[in-house]
Write a structure and sequence with these properties.
559 residues; alpha+beta; Beta-Lactamase; Alpha-Beta Plaits; six-stranded antiparallel beta sheet; five-stranded antiparallel beta sheet; 16 helices
């Protein structure tokens, strides 16, 4: 019999659990927030140092990547076979056109209008632009060792390095640029130099634009500590056009700052450039709290970053974190509360309701018996105990206890509706002789077969068969009158006979048979279930007196 759950308020256990859970959460959050505020103050210094180091490293990586890209593009041009062929044969127009065509396309990738080519054989200097190739192909100057403006070329060709990086003013746009002077060599013969100036101030702006001048200030310094770029002066005309060299130690006062720079410079000489960890030094005075220095890869330059307290981790920076943690904890508490309800309290509520239904109807399954968790174990144990208490262990049909409990509830229900009740009492004919003849094991097998035949004779959900005791059985038929009860009695007799269980000790048939007594009546308040059992027993006695292997019907009202 199926059962349905009625909507009821959640159990008191759940409300107690939720109340305790919320109280514990509130207490835990208050304690945790207090501890976090205390601990956070202590770890801020460590985080600030880490942040300063990461900022300097990322800045050095960005600057290094920008230089590496520019150097790579110039290197690519320096190794073009067309460029080397033209430099080796300057007056071959076909080679010149091919070389300038390839270099012109590369100028666009450099985002620069400052590409110069000098041929060693003639000292002629050509300018390569992204447009107007015909103008490009005409030399505009012949370099001289006596001209100071041409010193860059001779410095490059006399260097042992493949290329030179330096910061100098671009006379065309009056801005400082990072210049790349790259040698062109073929088969060990120097053919000339390719030179370009990279716009570097915009990279500095990108790195430090989200901090104001009082917050973080970044520098690029060379191996001597000379300032090449200053993030606070990327738009300062005097600084960008001035050729004056300013040493980093001249910009800031304070012994701790000077000591930090001295340590860094000394470290570079002992191999600091190969280290991936920046030098971070705390400053005891001035507007900045830390100075961080780290080398830029593939150069002799370094990034120097001065960090103020606002740029690092003061307590206000952690307020969004605390708010986020609070929101996550509240979400966690609500989610846990909901999960506990669904995983524990809701199944427990359904289990309770299913047990209430079983108590009232004595039918149906215990909720959760199909689960593979602890609740399933509990449900199966309850179902087992319920079955053990209400099912006959030998025959597998209902037992007398179940029948008596069920009859009491059935009588109350039928009394309210004015329905009929039919009760059958059944006894196996000469069963004692059967046990004596065939033994108790065969007797048990016979009882099981007869019980199954009787149970198969009733098919409605509310009808049931039960073992009353020994070889005696009962069948309860709610809402069934005498006519319907007689049909069931005939069916029971036929089903048992069809078993064809040999019984040589019987006086009525060669096989096992049964005698049936049945009673039917309209249930009233004055009746009890015991009255129906007693009346059916009387009918059974009459069947036995009349020769067995038959049924006798009595009307309850005629008693």
């Amino acid at each position: 019999m199926a059962y349905r759950f009625e909507k009821k308020k959640t159990g008191r256990l759940y409300f107690r659990f939720r109340k305790i859970n919320l109280l514990l959460f509130t207490a835990a959050f208050c304690v945790m927030a207090s501890v976090m505020m205390i601990v956070m103050g202590r770890v801020i210094a460590s985080l600030s140092v880490s942040y300063a180091g990461r900022y300097a490293l990322s800045s050095a990586e960005a600057l290094g990547a920008h230089l590496e890209r520019g150097t790579g593009l110039v290197s690519k041009m320096a190794h073009f076979s067309s460029v080397a062929d033209w430099m080796a044969d300057e007056h071959d127009e076909e080679k010149k056109d091919r070389a300038f065509g390839e270099m012109t396309s590369m100028v666009r990738e450099l985002y620069s209008n400052n590409l110069y080519v000098v041929l060693e054989s003639s000292r002629n200097e050509y300018r390569v632009r992204s447009v107007n190739q015909q103008v490009n192909a005409v030399p505009f100057k012949v370099l001289s060792e006596d001209d100071p403006d041409d010193a860059w070329y001779f410095e490059c060709i006399n260097s042992d390095d493949e290329y030179i990086l330096k910061v100098a003013v671009d006379q065309e746009v009056h801005r400082k640029r990072v210049w790349i002077d790259y040698k062109v060599v073929k088969d060990g013969v120097l053919l000339g130099v390719i030179c370009t100036g990279l716009e570097f101030s915009h990279v500095m702006n990108e790195l430090f634009s989200h901090h104001d001048g009082d917050d973080i200030r970044g520098f690029i310094i060379d191996e001597n500590g000379v300032i090449l770029m200053d993030s606070s002066l990327t738009d300062d005309i005097d600084f960008l056009y001035s050729a004056q060299e300013i040493h980093i130690e001249e910009e800031f006062r304070g012994s701790d700052f000077h000591d930090a720079v001295s340590v860094y410079m000394a470290g570079k000489e002992s191999g600091f450039r190969d280290m991936s960890t920046p030098l971070i030094v705390g400053l005891s005075s001035g507007q900045y709290r830390y100075v961080t220095m780290t080398p830029i890869r593939q150069t002799r330059w370094s990034v120097l970053v001065l960090s103020g307290s606002v740029s690092l981790f003061d307590m206000s920076n952690f307020m969004p974190v605390l708010a986020t943690v609070l929101a996550l904890l509240i979400a966690f508490a609500l989610t846990t509360n909901s999960a506990n309800y669904r995983l524990i309290f809701l199944p427990l509520s359904k289990l309770t309701k299913s047990l209430e239904f079983l108590r009232e109807s004595l039918e149906g399954r215990v909720y959760g018996s199909e689960r593979d968790d602890e609740l399933g174990d509990l449900s199966r144990m309850i179902e087992y105990l319920f079955t053990k208490a209400n099912v006959d262990a030998l025959t597998g049909i209902r037992n007398r206890r179940f029948m008596e409990n069920s009859l009491g509830q059935t009588m109350a229900m039928l009394n309210r509706s004015g329905g009929y009740l039919s009760t059958l009492m059944i006894d196996i004919d000469y069963f004692k002789r059967y046990n004596d003849e065939y033994g108790h094991d065969k007797g048990d097998t016979c009882l099981q077969a007869v019980a199954l035949a009787i149970a198969d004779s009733v098919t409605r959900a509310d009808d049931f068969a039960a073992r009353y005791g020994g070889e005696e059985f009962a069948v309860i038929l709610p809402n069934t009158d005498g006519k319907g009860a007689r049909l069931i009695a005939k069916k029971i007799l036929e089903n048992v006979r069809s078993l064809v269980i040999p019984h040589s000790g019987s006086d009525v048939a060669p096989n096992v048979t049964v005698s049936v007594g049945l009673v039917a009546g309209k249930v009233t308040f004055a009746q009890s279930w015991e009255d129906y059992i007693k009346r059916a027993d009387e009918a059974l006695y009459m069947s036995k007196q009349n020769g067995r292997n038959q049924y006798t019907y009595l009307d309850f009202e005629e008693a």
